[in-house]
Amino acid sequence: MSFYVPNLEELVPSEHRYRKILELVDFEKLTTGLRESYSSTGRAGYPVATAFKCLLLQFMNDLSDRELEEYFKDSLAGKLFCGFELMD
């Protein structure tokens, strides 16, 4: 029995298309203007860049909101792309 918990960086191949997108696109810079319209009231949401990446995954894979949630259960690359942890 091992208590080692693998890291998504180790599990997703270096040549995966989502990694290529992450290398090419600066999502923090891309979403700078959107942060201004983010509400400061209510419970804190996901970072704007994370939400944008989720929308991009939905578009690229033709997923509904519910399908995206299911997608994250199976897709380690999707979790890595959006900045989630293995157990998220």
Describe the structure.
The chain is mostly helical and 88 residues long. It has one domain. 58% of the residues lie in helices and 0% in strands. It contains 7 helices and no strands. The chain has helices spanning 8-11, 17-24, 27-30, 32-35, 48-61, 65-74, 76-82.
At a glance:
The protein has 7 helices and no strands.
Count the strands?
Answer: 0
Globally, the shape reads globular
Structural class: mainly alpha
| N-C termini distance | 23 Å
State which percent range the strand residues make up.
under 5%
Helix content: 55-70%
> What is the domain tally?
1
Low-confidence stretches: none
Rounded average pLDDT: 90
Q: Order of helices and strands, N to C? A: HHHHHHH
Evaluate the radius of gyration.
14 Å
The number of helices is 7
Largest sheet, in brief, is: none
